[in-house]
Design goal:
The chain is an alpha+beta fold. The chain has 28 helices and 22 strands. The two termini are 34 Å apart.
Length: 777
């Protein structure tokens, strides 16, 4: 697709939309003036002039109404505005000019409200479309030239100035970039991208100028895919709108039949006209489209781009959700799970040396090791004579000693402690990166793709939104997949699937219920296309998955999916409620008019009220109505970010607790006892102050948001248990002999305290990150 031509058409869309209500506004003004002037003449006693004004207002409305009917028929729709044309013509035929003028005003008001509502609802989508860049500044041979966006190729070096939109996907080169990603993510805070980090097209440079090395052409970039989706975000094809047309298919003949029967039985043409007046189906035509377009707008504000109204309506009816694992339920990139040190070494020492050697490696595991070391504030050394061998790891010299990070050579001697590391890696589904110094293993770093912190909360919200069945489809091994399935409470887990297997599984579920498939990789694209609704994580996902999807989450937060389901279900409910409610009211008014209890003029006023009521009800879909979503104060959000950073910093304390327990299980020599003493120091100086600050600063700040102090009571109980175990370890050290050696009868309980403390801390940290820290962007 030629993105420049596409965005050019999109830029013309807002202007067309602005022109859209001109006819309606003129019609509203003409009919209002005719009705008002006619009323003045009637009060003045000039009844003939009053009837003339009202008749002219009626005639003015008939002409565009006939045009709307013909346009609807041309599109193959039922043309229910035909009732309005019949009612207008009927009032002229029987001389009910006041009723005709009221119907004309009603028709003009309904059309104007519809146009205004659609403009308001489409405002966020138009902002997205207008944001699309058309040119880029390319740096070549020391000069910077402005070129059309279609001429930008992969590998070009672009300059992005302050306030400019990033035109294509790429990576930051040179100085860091300060970016406003709110257009894509909905989050108002700026983010900082370091050199080498990926940047998506469509975000705004909120800092100084920076260079960007392109990684995708314009038509393959993130923003281009979103623009293509947004162009299709129209409500006309929504099933709920077609449902309104189906209702109208029988409502039209029913109205005509009721009017004819009233005329036949009573012999009064006025009664027939009165029936047609109150049968004018503006609620049916206006309410459903307004509600669906409003839902599309609401979704776009939170970083969810929905392909069309049909996708939104189907999302609201979904009962089965299928999820990929990697990148969807998990972070999609490995993180350090634990660091194991050989006797005589410290875990922080192992991590620092491994990261020092890995900091120049492009491997995904190497980046995870370096990130973990930097998060824990470890100072890295500069390695020398660095080389890397694919499949084996990196080699180099650090502090004068020859080191290697990666796999162990088959000829390397393996001490007894390495067997425990391999066992734990198998149990935890982790990958092991070994550190050797002078060809001897001295430590290991265990890495695993962690569960997204917001995943458990998201799945709970999805069940509350009406999703009855949650299934994981993954190509990963069965053991880690089942572990995640158990943690999240999934109904079923299918592992080791090929893309074809995923498609078969999606089709099987689709035969049972309306099914949503969520994924982010190229291998997920066929499954997304096979589902009733495909949802792609566009923040880090592939372009192929985004192109195959009906819904794209532009922010890297899977909890937006739960928000989108809630919005879709609510929009559909409001659309159906508005359409059916308007029809019921109209039917009741028709019956009243058929018995001669409602004259045409009064019926026109009543129908006007019905129209306004159902359209205003449909506009409720624009409001943020998510009571389950906690509203954080800025102070609470700041505290969440602070304590989340401290969790990263305290990972070495958790490693030290586990390491001391392991050492004490193997031996009670001086090194093991020194490790326990170091744990006590770390607990006293770092961990317990952190837990105390959480108890007295973070929890009180979160309590109002979460529903009161009782919501944080379980976490407070965990704090008490952590404090109890820490005091117990301190007591054991105090009871030790003069040489610092615990008595034999102390060892079992001391080991139990250390292992228990490690388990409680791991669980407590995970619970806080899932339940509290995931609330903040």
């Amino acid at each position: 697709m030629d993105l420049t031509r596409a965005t050019g058409r999109l830029r013309r869309l807002p202007t067309a939309l602005l022109r859209l209500p001109v006819l309606e506004m003129l019609l509203l003004a003409d009919t209002a003036v005719a009705l008002t002037v006619g009323g003045v003449f009637r009060l003045a006693g000039a009844e003939s002039l009053a009837n003339l004004c009202w008749a002219l207002g009626t005639v003015v409305a008939v002409v565009p109404a006939v045009g709307w009917v013909l346009e609807a028929l041309r599109r193959g729709r039922a043309g229910v505005d035909l009732i309005a044309v019949l009612a207008l013509g009927g009032t002229l035929a029987v001389g009910e000019y006041l009723a005709g003028s009221l119907i004309a005003l009603m028709l003009a008001t309904g059309r104007t409200l519809e146009a205004a509502a659609q403009q308001r609802a489409a405002r966020d989508l138009r902002a997205l479309l207008e944001h699309a860049p058309r040119t880029a500044r390319r740096r070549t041979a020391g000069t910077v030239d402005t070129v059309p966006l279609d001429e930008v190729a992969v590998g070009d070096l672009l300059v992005v100035g302050p306030g400019e939109v990033v035109p294509v996907d790429g990576r930051v080169v040179g100085s860091p970039a300060e970016l406003d990603e709110s257009v894509l993510t909905g989050e108002p805070l700026t983010v900082r991208r370091s050199p080498g980090e990926a940047v998506r097209s469509g975000v705004v440079n909120a800092g100084g100028a920076f260079d960007l090395r392109t990684t995708a052409a314009a038509q393959d970039s993130t923003y281009a895919a979103i623009v293509r989706l947004a162009r299709q975000a129209q409500a006309e094809s929504a099933p709920v709108v077609r449902l309104a047309d189906r209702y109208a298919a029988w409502f039209l003949p029913l109205s005509v039949a009721a009017a004819g029967l009233a005329w036949l039985v009573s012999g009064s043409a006025v009664r027939a006209v009165a029936v047609l007046v109150v049968a004018t189906p503006c609620p049916l035509l206006l309410a459903a489209p307004v509600a669906v377009v409003s839902g599309l707008s609401r979704a776009s504000r939170i970083g969810v781009v929905v392909r069309d109204g049909g996708a939104l309506e189907s999302l609201g009816r979904a009962r089965t959700l299928l999820l990929d694992k990697t990148g969807t339920l998990t972070a999609g990139r490995p993180r350090v799970l634990d660091v194991v040190a050989a006797p005589g070494w410290q875990p922080s020492q192992v991590l620092r040396l491994a990261a020092s050697l890995d900091q120049y490696s492009p491997h995904v595991l190497a980046r995870a090791v370096v990130d973990a070391a930097r998060e824990r504030g470890l100072r890295l050394s500069t390695p020398a004579d660095v080389s890397e061998e694919p499949g084996r790891g990196a080699f180099g010299t650090v502090a004068g000693r020859r080191m290697a990070v990666g796999r162990l050579d088959v000829h390397t001697a393996r001490p007894g402690w390495t067997g425990a590391v391999n066992n734990r890696a198998a149990l935890d589904g982790a990958t092991v990166v070994w550190l050797t110094v002078d060809a001897h293993p001295v430590g290991a770093v265990l890495l695993r793709d962690p569960l997204r912190p917001d995943a458990p909360r998201t799945l709970r919200q999805l069940r509350a939104a009406g999703i009855r069945r949650l299934v994981m489809l993954t190509g990963d091994r069965a053991e880690p997949a089942r572990e995640i399935g158990a943690v999240l409470g999934l109904d079923e887990v299918h592992a080791e699937l090929s893309p074809a297997d995923k498609v078969r599984a999606v089709r099987a579920e689709r035969d049972q219920a309306v099914t949503v498939m969520v994924g982010d990789g190229v291998n997920d694209a066929p499954a997304l296309a096979a589902a009733n609704i495909g949802v792609a994580l566009g923040a880090h996902g592939s372009t192929a998955s985004s192109e195959a999807a009906d819904v794209v989450l532009t922010t890297d937060r899977v909890d937006r999916l739960a928000d989108a389901v809630l919005i879709a279900a609510r929009s559909r409910r409001i659309a159906v409620q508005s359409a059916l409610g308007g029809m019921v009211l109209s039917l009741a008014a028709m019956a009243t008019a058929a018995f001669g209890l409602l004259p045409p003029a009064a019926g026109a006023l009543l129908q006007e009220g019905i129209d306004v009521a159902v359209i205003l009800n449909a506009l409720r879909a624009l409001r943020d109505d998510r009571p389950d979503r906690p509203a954080l104060t800025p102070a609470a959000e700041t505290l969440i970010h602070r304590f989340a950073a401290e969790h990263d910093d305290l990972q070495d304390v958790l490693d030290a607790v586990r390491d001391a327990a392991d050492r004490l299980s193997n031996d009670t020599d001086a090194a093991s006892l020194a490790a326990v003493t170091e744990v006590h120091r770390l607990l006293t100086q770092r961990l317990l102050p952190h837990e105390h600050a959480e108890e007295h600063e973070l929890y009180p700040a979160l309590a109002p948001t979460l529903g009161g102090p009782e919501a944080t009571a379980p976490m407070s109980r965990a704090h008490a248990e952590i404090d109890r175990l820490a005091r117990r370890i301190a007591t054991h050290l105090a009871l030790a002999g003069p040489d610092g050696t615990p008595a034999p009868e102390q060892l079992d309980d001391l080991r139990a305290c250390l292992y228990g403390l490690h388990t409680v801390l791991r669980l407590h940290f995970t619970q806080e990150e899932e339940n509290y820290f995931s609330l903040a962007p």
